[in-house]
Structures are given as C-alpha cells and as structure tokens.
Design brief:
The protein is of the alpha+beta class. It folds into three domains: about 260 residues, Bira Bifunctional Protein, Domain 2 (BirA Bifunctional Protein, domain 2, 2-Layer Sandwich); about 110 residues, Rossmann fold, CATH 3.40.50.800; about 70 residues, Translation Initiation Factor IF3 (2-Layer Sandwich), CATH 3.30.110. About 40% of the residues lie in helices and about 30% in strands. It has 14 helices and 25 strands. The strands form six sheets. The chain has an eleven-stranded mixed sheet with strand order 3-7-8-14-11-10-9-22-25-21-20, sandwiched between helices. A five-stranded mixed sheet has the order 16-15-17-18-19, sandwiched between helices. A three-stranded antiparallel sheet has the order 4-6-5. Strand 23 and strand 24 form a beta hairpin. The longest helix is centred in the last third of the chain and has 26 residues. The chain binds one RNA strand of 77 nucleotides through helix 1, strand 11, strand 14, helix 10 and helix 11.
RNA sequence: CGGGACGUGGCGCAGCUUGGUAGCGCGGUUGCUUUGGGAGCAAUAGGUCGCAGGUUCGAAUCCUGUCGUCCCGACCA
C-alpha cells in the first residue's frame, strides 16, 4: 500500500519535471528516441552556464580546442577498462558515402581516446607539459532510459583533458577542477554540493580515482552534477604518451579529465523549482527582469509603454531585461508565464505607477510583491534584489539539504528512512564492494561519495556491522 | 530487454465495452468588448482516427501484426 503511494508520488514528480521542462520551453522531444531539442530559452540558459564556466576554465590556464566526433574503433579498444565501460553504450557508424566502412567509426561517448592519440604526438619533452585542454562538444551515449536534460542520448558538455609531468601535479589538477565545479555550482547555480571521491563501483571507466560534486534535489534524490578524474598513467600507457624528463629519461604523462554537461540544467530545475515551475538563479537566468505593462485604453498604453521603455534603457546596461510588449496576452497571463519560466524579478507597470513614478516588483523566489518602488534608483534596487535572490535560493537549498541529511547507524533505520523519504544518509561503511552492492540491491541507494576531509571515526558498517572508520553519503540517485 | 499506460485537427482529451462514416476543451484566424493574477461573446478554418493486414454490407471502434511515445525497473553524466 505504502509502496503504491510512493510509486504514485514518484510518478507525479517525474511528471512535474517533464511538465516544467516543456512548459518553460526549455526543451522539446525530438523525433529520435532519447534525443531532445534544446529550445531558445533552454539554450540561452546553457549559454550563460557555458560563458561563466568557460571563463573560469580559462582563468585556470586551460585553452579550448575541438576534436572530431568520429573515433576509429581501434582507438576505443586500447584502454581495457575504458572500452568495457563504454562499448555497450556507443553508437557506431558502419556506413559512409553509400559504402560499408573498412573500420567502423565510434561516435564519441567521451573524447579520451581521440584526444590522447593527439597528445601522444604533441608531447615530446617535459617542456611541453602541462598540457591543459578543454573542449565544448556533444557526445552520444546510447542509454536505455532517457529523461530531458538528465540523461539524453546526445548531450552537450565541456570536457577537460590534461597531461602532467608528475603524479602529484595531475592529482592536484583533478582536485582543483573539482573545486572549480563546486565554486560554480554554489556561486552561480546557487546549489550547495558535496565534494568527494567515488567508490570503485562508481568510478569512471579507465580512471584511477573519480571525484564528484553531488547535489540534493528537492525530491530528496541525489544528482551527480560534475566529475573530475585522476587518470594516472592508464591512457598514457595505452596511447603511448611519453616525454623526456629534465633528467633525460622517458616517462609516461600523468593525466586528468573532467566534465559537466547539460545535466546541470536538470539540476537547476530540480534543485530550485517549485509548484509554479522554474526558479532560476539570477546569475544564470536568460532574463533577470521582465517588465509587464498594464493598461486599458490606448492613451494609457502610450504612457505606460513610454515609461517602460525608459526603464528598460535604464536597466539594460546592468541586467538582462526583457520588455513583454505582446498584446495578445493579458497581464495576468504574463505573470504566470514568466513565473513558470523562473524569471527572478518581474516589474509590473500600470497607469497608477506611471502617475506616481514608481513600479511594482514581484520576486519569484518568495512571491513577495514590493509596491511603490521609486523609479529613482531603480537600477540599484534591482541589482540589489538580484543579489538577495541569488543568496536566498542558495540558503534555501542549503537549509533543505541540512534538513534532509540524516546520520544513521543501523540498516533497519536506513531502510525505514528511505521508505519514508529520500535524502542524504551519512553512515559508516567497511569499504567492501560486497556491502555496497547489497545495499544497492536492497534499497536502490548508492554511495554518492566519500566526502573529503571527513574525520575517520570508529564505527560499524551500516550493512555488515563490521568495524569501519570511513563515513560515506548514501542516497538514491538520478 | 521485462512490467504498465497510451497513439484520434497545432496541443490536451472523449468516443471504442454494445461497429453505422468523428466530437469537446485549449490554441489559431476575424470582429467587438476587455486588460493590476492564466479575459468574454460571436463567427470561422483545421482530422485518410500511428501504420499494415484481416473480419464485416459497413471499422476510430472487433481481430492479428507492426512502429512509436511516456511512466516504472536493470545500465549510466
């Protein structure tokens, strides 16, 4: 019975998510199963994410390049674990120009192989290192089950690939980029994330260690929002990336790779959204402010429109502002429309406001309406409010995560918690893959990460009750 | 690949049980009245009912097959 209810709720949430994506005009279904069309509003959001991240990546010394989408089959098979991990979900081109190809071409599921093939040519000396490359690209992974933004057959992402002279330098790079992702998630997306290391079971195919940022969505499920891998010398050996060291010897490089994808948009939706639809962080919102004019007669329309235009030109240098002049919709319709789309601030302007040289400002995050805000200094007021909203939705998300993170020591309590509500669960774990697998089997919860810098404390494994000092975060995940 | 649901104007659906030649809401167009929280009235356009077979005098409806989509599971960012 309870299970039935849970299923009902889950289905409702799945429906809510899909509805938000479609109604906010972020994306639409494509004719090909599992693919999606990113619509202008969704793409504008992605462009803002891209712009901010791209700058952060460059500020850390990386440069952008572009590698081809088609990869020779032989490349894919060079690194054993990599091929085992990815081969089942790859799309393969077998024909071209009307003929069967001699060697099938893999559509990249990620670009380690092709990039490392090139790295082998480019790296000769320790003086060529570190090599710090990023690319913005699409990748294809043939998923069994897809969801808009969260898991699509084709998705857009950024993938960084670096090569270093020493193990320590590569390790530091992997950690540094993870910190960059955390910074981005928290300061731009307003989503608090945990940073930590993945267990062997969750590790990237071909990596020595995988680090991740994990967010908690409003339904209590975890979402891996970004990953950073320390690849060791696995690919360097498979692709023969060697350099002559200062000491004269030949050595394999040490590498990293790291990426975030259009899944981040899914994180935004599920991390901040409410019953009215999207709630976007001001720093990333395509429109930070939308102005809705209100009028009855033509003479009112003229006056209101002129006033609105004046305010638009006042705000334009400072914020992304949109004046919704459409005449086929009523103000009430527009209020709902822009709320669904998550616009942080809406300015309503009618004849009364014009007469008094004021505006009405509605906040999306709280629903508050500020009446009679003076036109004088409005630009500063808007900037201030956007800052407040950015901070407020972060605080809300953080409070939500704190409330929904439980420390649990016994497996019965663990199961009971997940039956009641999804959340982050902190527990001891004995580090055996067997316990991890059994827990997943019985509860669908996985170890999201082994957080960095958590003190080792004596305890008992949540599953086998054996001695354990490592505490980890469990959750059901997307 | 398993389990469930569903394919009918642009979108959302009814009609199917009990066969008789397709209807509702939204949207579109035109006109008038409206506009501070999803406007009203009137007129108007728009559909070989996913596809292919079959049963029948007659199929959206019954049968068989097939394709596709969504939701739930196994795989994954």
């Amino acid at each position: 019975m309870e299970e039935e209810e849970d299923k009902g709720k889950d289905a409702e949430r799945a429906r809510w998510y899909t509805d938000v994506v479609i109604q906010a005009e972020l994306a639409d279904y494509s004719p090909v199963k599992g693919c999606m069309v990113i619509r202008p509003y969704g793409y504008a959001l992605w462009e803002n994410i891209q712009r901010a991240l791209d700058q952060m990546i460059k500020d850390l010394g990386h440069v952008n390049a572009y590698f081809p989408m088609l990869i020779p089959e032989s490349f894919m098979t060079k690194e054993k674990e990599h091929v085992e991990g990815f081969a089942p979900e790859c799309a393969v081109v077998t024909h071209g120009g009307g003929k069967k190809l001699d060697e099938p071409l893999f559509v990249r599921p990620t670009s380690e192989t092709i990039i490392n093939h090139m790295f082998a040519k480019w790296v000769q000396s320790w003086r060529d290192l570190p090599l710090l490359i990023n690319q913005w690209a699409n990748v294809v992974r043939w998923e069994m089950r897809t969801r808009l933004f969260l898991r699509t057959t084709e998705f857009l992402w950024q993938e960084g690939h670096t090569a270093h002279a020493t193990e320590q330098e590569a390790e530091e790079e992997a950690r540094r980029m993870l910190e960059m992702y955390k910074d981005f998630a928290e300061n731009w997306m307003a989503l608090p994330v945990l940073t930590g290391e993945k267990t062997a079971a969750e590790r990237f195919a071909g990596a020595v260690r995988t680090y991740c940022i994990e967010g908690l969505m409003r339904d209590g499920k975890a979402l891996q929002a970004g990953t950073s891998h320390f690849l060791g010398q696995n690919f360097a050996k498979a692709f023969d990336i060697q350099f002559q060291s200062a000491g004269g010897g030949l050595e394999h490089v040490w590498q990293t790779s790291w990426g975030v994808s259009t899944r981040l948009i899914g994180a935004l939706i599920m991390g901040h959204g409410d019953e009215k639809g999207l709630v976007l962080p001001p720093k990333l919102a395509p429109y930070q402010v939308v102005i809705v004019p209100i009028y009855k007669k033509d003479d009112e329309k003229a006056v209101v429109t002129e006033y609105c235009r004046k305010l638009v030109s006042m705000l334009k240098p400072l914020v992304r502002v949109h004046f919704d002049e459409r005449e086929q919709y009523t103000p009430g319709w527009k209020f709902n429309h822009w709320e669904q789309k998550g616009v942080p601030l809406r300015i309503n302007i009618g004849p009364r406001d014009v007469a008094a040289n004021v505006v009405e400002i509605a906040r999306r995050d709280t629903g508050d309406k500020l009446r009679g805000v003076s036109e004088h200094g409005l630009d500063a007021e808007v900037v201030k409010l956007l800052d407040i909203i950015q901070k407020n939705i972060y605080d809300k998300a953080l409070a939500f995560r704190t409330e929904n993170t439980k420390q649990i020591a016994d497996f019965d309590g663990f199961k009971k918690q997940l039956d009641t509500a999804n959340c982050f669960i902190e527990s001891h774990w004995c580090e055996s893959a067997k316990c991890e697998a059994s827990i997943k089997e019985e509860t669908k919860a996985t170890i999201r990460c082994i957080p960095f810098d958590w003190e080792k404390t004596p305890g008992k494994c949540i599953y086998c009750k054996g001695d354990a000092t490592t505490r980890v975060v469990f959750a059901r995940a997307y």
